[in-house]
Amino acid sequence: MFSSSKVVIGLDIGADSIKMVEINHNDQKKEIATYGIAKHSLGVDGYWDGSRLRQIATIVEDILDSGNFVGVKTVMSVQSKDVYVTTMDFEAGWSKKMIQDEIDRQAPYFLPYPPDEMRLSWSLIQNDPRIMKFTGKQRVIINALPDFVIENSKNLLEHCNLDGMALENQTISQIRCALSPDVGNTVLVDIGGKNTTFSILVDGILRSSSHLPIGTDKISTELSNALGIDVPVAEYFKRDLGLVNLYHLPKPLQDNLAVMRSELQNFVDLNKKVAQDPSKIIITGGGVYTPGFVEFFRNFPVPVYVANCLRKVQVPPQFQPYLMPMINQLSTAIGLALRDDM
Description:
Blueprint: E1 6-13, E2 17-25, E3 30-39, H1 50-66, E4 73-78, E5 84-91, H2 96-110, E6 118-124, H3 129-135, E7 137-146, H4 147-159, E8 163-169, H5 170-178, E9 185-191, E10 196-202, E11 205-212, H6 216-227, H7 231-239, H8 251-273, E12 280-284, H9 293-296, E13 304-306, H10 320-323, H11 331-337
Parallel strand pairs: 1-4, 4-8, 9-12, 12-13
Antiparallel strand pairs: 1-2, 2-3, 5-7, 6-7, 9-10, 10-11
């Protein structure tokens, strides 16, 4: 555990923004000490060469300075789309060596990058009797992370003189922030700028994720095209709609929400077939604040809730007017900075 003098920074490098939160850890409470958000238009996919690294580092350093961050111990996120997480079923009598050999054989076909460019691990799910009952097989969780992600984070943290404590899948951070503790089967939906991620959790443990290339940026772009206005103006228009009648929402907004709803239903149906029938859906990310979003999912077959990102952390009074309206945008950064097991 951290002593009362310890602070931890959560650094979340997103597709269109960088979010940072610093949390004070002491014996009685965990409290947000400072935070910062900066929009960007940099491409963060793939390996960061020297030029890209310096651009990203400049933004991080500006947030550190303007937000008066005092710590250096940092937990950094990995975009969920860059972490391959899935489950596979194998015959009940197979040994661990047989499972390993089969995973190695199939890896070139299911991994997004060549196997020799990724770090892959797997573990057997041993405490869920429903799997054997419904499938007659044993199930493993597979995780794989590209080498370039590890190299990017190492170079960035060194460049910014931050002490990197760990790298973490942003979905794990969101679970720690909003769903700890959690019981039963839950779908966690993260709506970001470029992508929406659906994850199935069993008793708070991530089993698998699926990614949809629709986020808040796509909604703004299509509003811009439909209304003949600039994208920044469309962004403000989207935020200021203030409409509760879904029939009055612009068609591009309704169309994108309809696609998200359809893909979410497909994800729920798929998990029903593999003995992971979800009992609730929790939504986080900046897309939570899209007008009409919560209302659009109100009659979904599985109950839908907005994540509570303040389960384990306190917000000082001076930050509340600014943080509360956007707290779900910081769910990953908060979850990262809450990590205290090192």
